[in-house]
Design goal:
Layout lengths: L7 E3 L6 E2 L7 E2 L1 E3 L6 E7 L5 E3 L5 E4 L6 E10 L5 E11 L3 E2 L3 E3 L10 E2 L7 E4 L5 E4 L2 E4 L7 E10 L4 E9 L1
Length: 173
C-alpha cells in the first residue's frame, strides 16, 4: 500500500488585475508529488482574458471585462495521478482614467489632473520631460517656445499597482 501523497500549491495569494492591462504573470507551483505536474481550474472562473498554462502553471493575459473578485480552485496533478488543490482569489479593478484628457492651459493655467479607478486611494503621477515643460515637486512648468502657441502631448503614468499609463493633451502659448 502506497502512503498518502500530499500535493501543495503555492503561492498562497495572486496579484490583482486591472482592466485593460497585462496581468503580472503569476506562476503556480506544486510540491509533494512526482514531477511533472499539470494544472487546471476545476471550480470557478479566472477573470475574462486570463488563462492558466496547464503545464507551466502560469496565469497570464489581459484582463478584459468586469470588476470584483474572482474566486477559483486550481488542481495540480502529478505524474502518478495524485492531486492537490488550492483556492485563489484575484481582485479586479476598473481602468484608471484621468478626469480630463484635453486641457487648454492658456485658458486654464492652473488645471488639475485627477485620476479615478484602479484600486483607489492615493495616485502618483509621473512623466518624462522635454524642452516644452518641466516636472518638479511643485507641479508642471511650461517653458517658453519662442512665443508661439504649440500643442504638446504628455504621457502620464498613474500609479498605484497595478499601474496604467494615460495620455494628456494640452496646448499653450
Amino acid at each position: 500500500m502506497n502512503p498518502a501523497v500530499t500535493i501543495e500549491l503555492s503561492p498562497e495569494e495572486l496579484p490583482d488585475a486591472l482592466f485593460g492591462a497585462d496581468y503580472p504573470t503569476a506562476t503556480l507551483t506544486a510540491m509533494g508529488g512526482t514531477e511533472p505536474y499539470t494544472f487546471a481550474v476545476t471550480d470557478g472562473l479566472l477573470p475574462t482574458g486570463l488563462t492558466l498554462g496547464p503545464e507551466s502553471g502560469n496565469i497570464s493575459g489581459t484582463f478584459e471585462e468586469g470588476e470584483g473578485d474572482y474566486t477559483f480552485t486550481v488542481t495540480a496533478t502529478d505524474s502518478n495521478g495524485d492531486t492537490g488543490t488550492g483556492e485563489y482569489t484575484i481582485h479586479t479593478y476598473p481602468m484608471i482614467t484621468l478626469t480630463d484628457n484635453l486641457i487648454d492651459l492658456e485658458t486654464d493655467p492652473a488645471a488639475t489632473l485627477t485620476a479615478d479607478g484602479g484600486a483607489g486611494g492615493d495616485y502618483t503621477f509621473a512623466l518624462s520631460s522635454d524642452d516644452a515643460y518641466t516636472l518638479s515637486t511643485y507641479g508642471l512648468t511650461l517653458n517658453e517656445v519662442k512665443g508661439r502657441r504649440q500643442a504638446f502631448y504628455l504621457s502620464f503614468q498613474v500609479i498605484p499597482a497595478p499601474s496604467s499609463e494615460h495620455n494628456f493633451h494640452g496646448a499653450y502659448a
